[in-house]
Write a structure and sequence with these properties.
single chain; mainly alpha; 2 domains
Amino acid sequence: MDMSPQEYQQYVQQHAKKSPIVKNMILAFVIGGLICVLGQLIQNGWAAAGLGKEDAGTATSCSLVFLSALLTGLNLYNKLARFGGAGTLVPITGFANAVVSPAIDFKSEGFITGMAAKMFLVAGPVIVFGTLVSVIYGVILKLFGLV
């Protein structure tokens, strides 16, 4: 079959499966929203247990990281991600999943050279560049006298 690049593009577009973008957006919104509602319920529970607002927020973050890591280890978070798509990227749970997933993938290589070394494969650059940008932002604010 001899085709020009334009003819090939038309052929691909005609035979490509249509993406259910509206369905995907709705599922992402619902799943992301449910994760946020769960976070709010956890925070309300910590507050009801007697923690102050700031301490309850910290305990909530720790709880969400723990739950995300646990669900990742049980391979349930990946199933949720296949269903809810981008909704599972809610920052704290998605970040915990990004740290735990590579560690689990490389556990056969051993604890130190596998799990520990690969744990920050995805999350490492996020931590490094996030810290770098925070420092630059702080310096800029200090230079302009906003801090």
